[in-house]
């Protein structure tokens, strides 16, 4: 049917007509809020590159967790900034490590909130790399052992789900095997399956103090021009036992999100990363854009592309706006 018999504008005339026709619904149900945790007391420090985001010490974290729960956000993702860094990132798998303590503190105030932990070494290593360097390169297989120890120690502390973000080959299988052996076969893995080597992580690296001291992450994170390769990454992670696969970043990779959902029909997360957040904050601070409108538009687009859930620093704002 074509014009003049058919007029698409007929169903756009009023808000109620538009509501009836609306295909994609943004909901608080599908949001995951990332949080940064630091040692010490009475710390709630705004991250200079990410206005509106904070680093919390454990005491301050507790009240933050209550608010997040009251807003109806179902899950948080924890990043830890340890007091000490070393060559192998040992605080990442220490029983009294910052993340392990943050998980316990969270569980004291909320048993329902889903606690997801980032499994990576870059925040914990003195060199800032996601794995163990050997002869100037990140050594894949020796890193796997440490990563599975990190995941195990987080789960022992009470994490409900682990999210490996290092992009080593075989990490999902290594973590799955270790968790199963230790009696945690019920704990899901959300794998950062297609994680690109992106300039959009800039503000995060300041927030997490995780910028590499030498070199970069190009030898393990994906090359942005590639799309077929992302499908191979996702296929491998599913084969290795990932329960949820992730595409990261989100906004500049909507095609990857769309392909991933169409080709695999698997639970899919998209990470609306720090650079995507900070760009909007900066433009909004100058009154160049309408922040709320743009955030809702972008997050809806990420869902429309095919994401089932979104990790976003806007989760708190969105929960409030949608309430
Ligand atoms: C690695 C990790 C990074 C992010 C999440 N997990 C940083 C990186 O790979 O350099 C980026 C998140 C963001 O930019 O919001 N631990």
Mind explaining what this structure looks like?
- This protein is an alpha/beta fold and 323 residues long.
- The chain has one domain (24-322): Aldolase class I (TIM Barrel, Alpha-Beta Barrel), CATH 3.20.20.
- The chain is built from eleven helices and twelve strands.
- The strands form two sheets. Strands 1, 2, 3, 4, 5, 8, 9, 10, 11 and 12 form a ten-stranded mixed β-sheet that branches. It has a two-stranded antiparallel sheet with strand order 6-7.
- The two termini are 39 Å apart.
- The structure holds ligand PBG.
- Residues 118, 120, 122, 165, 201, 204-205, 210, 273-274 line the site of ligand PBG.
- Ligand PBG binds at residues 118, 120, 122, 165, 201, 204-205, 210, 273-274.
- Keywords: Heme biosynthesis, Lyase, Magnesium, Metal-binding, Porphyrin biosynthesis, Zinc.
- InterPro entries: ALAD, ALAD_AS, Aldolase_TIM.
- The active site is at residues 195, 248.
- Zn(2+) binds at residues 120, 122, 130.
- One of its GO terms (molecular function) is zinc ion binding.
């Amino acid at each position: 049917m074509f014009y003049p018999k058919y007029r698409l504008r007929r169903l756009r005339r009023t808000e109620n007509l538009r509501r009836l026709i609306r295909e994609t619904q943004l909901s608080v149900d599908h949001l995951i809020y990332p949080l940064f945790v630091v040692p010490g007391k009475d710390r709630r420090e705004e991250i200079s590159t990410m206005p509106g985001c904070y680093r919390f010490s454990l005491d301050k974290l507790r009240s933050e967790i209550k608010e997040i729960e009251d807003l109806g956000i179902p899950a948080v993702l924890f990043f830890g900034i340890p007091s000490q860094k070393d060559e192998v990132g040992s605080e990442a798998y220490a029983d009294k490590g910052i993340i392990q303590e943050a998980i316990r503190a969270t569980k004291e105030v909320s048993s329902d909130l889903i606690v997801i932990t980032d499994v990576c070494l870059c925040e914990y290593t003195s060199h800032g790399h996601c794995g163990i360097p050997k002869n100037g390169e990140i050594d894949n297989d020796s890193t796997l052992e440490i990563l599975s120890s990190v995941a195990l120690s987080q789960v022992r502390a009470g994490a409900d789900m682990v999210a490996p973000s290092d992009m080593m080959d075989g990490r999902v299988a290594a973590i799955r095997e270790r968790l199963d052996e230790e009696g945690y076969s019920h704990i899901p893995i959300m794998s950062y399956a297609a994680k690109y080597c992106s300039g959009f992580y800039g503000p995060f690296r300041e927030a997490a103090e995780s910028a590499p001291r030498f070199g970069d992450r190009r030898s393990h994170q994906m090359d942005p021009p590639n799309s077929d390769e992302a499908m191979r990454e996702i296929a491998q992670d599913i084969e290795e036992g990932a329960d949820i696969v992730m595409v990261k970043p989100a906004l500049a990779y909507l095609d990857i999100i769309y392909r991933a959902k169409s080709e695999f029909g698997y639970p899919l997360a998209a990470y609306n990363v720090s650079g995507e957040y900070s760009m909007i904050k900066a433009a909004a601070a100058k009154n160049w854009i309408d922040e709320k409108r743009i955030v809702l538009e972008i997050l809806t687009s990420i869902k429309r592309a095919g994401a089932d859930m979104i990790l976003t620093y806007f989760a708190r704002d969105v929960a409030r706006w949608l309430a």
